[in-house]
Design a protein that fits this description.
The protein is 36% helix and 20% strand. It is an alpha/beta fold. The protein has one domain: 3-Layer(aba) Sandwich (Rossmann fold).
Length: 132
């Protein structure tokens, strides 16, 4: 699904006027959106919370991937928009990131809004769950 790309401030505005309460962002494309969408569905559907999963490529900028997500995270943090209450509508933002080597290079973001894979990427996690 192709979505309109906004500036960071425009993206915040679109979040404020949407019916969505949880905005999840992931590094990858289709398989990451599906995988994390299922996690969001399992957590949100029983408590009737609307959610949307976005890929990094849907954010403004040329980089995409983890660098773009970290840049957007820092922007939201600076603007105090990771958790928002705009005109009575509460929204939250989470970021799903591949661990890669961030733990060794001490670049992990420490936030309740950032969730790292246990292994270096989703594929490694899926293989470990299946006993490979």
């Amino acid at each position: 699904m192709n979505r309109q790309v906004h500036s960071f401030s425009g993206f915040i505005r679109s979040m404020q006027i949407s019916n969505t309460k949880l905005f999840a962002f992931t590094e990858g494309k289709i398989h990451d959106r599906y995988f994390y969408g299922k996690i969001c569905e399992a957590a949100c559907k029983p408590i009737s919370i609307n959610y949307s999963v976005y890929c990094a490529q849907e954010l403004p900028g040329d980089t995409g991937g983890k660098l773009q997500l970290i840049k957007f995270y820092k922007y939201l943090q600076k603007k105090k928009q990771l958790f928002s209450n705009f005109q009575g509508k509460k929204t939250a933002v989470i970021f799903f990131l591949d661990k890669d080597i961030d733990d060794f290079s001490r670049r992990c973001l420490h936030s309740d809004h950032v969730i790292y894979t246990k292994y270096y990427n989703i594929e490694n996690h899926l293989l470990s769950v299946n006993g490979v």
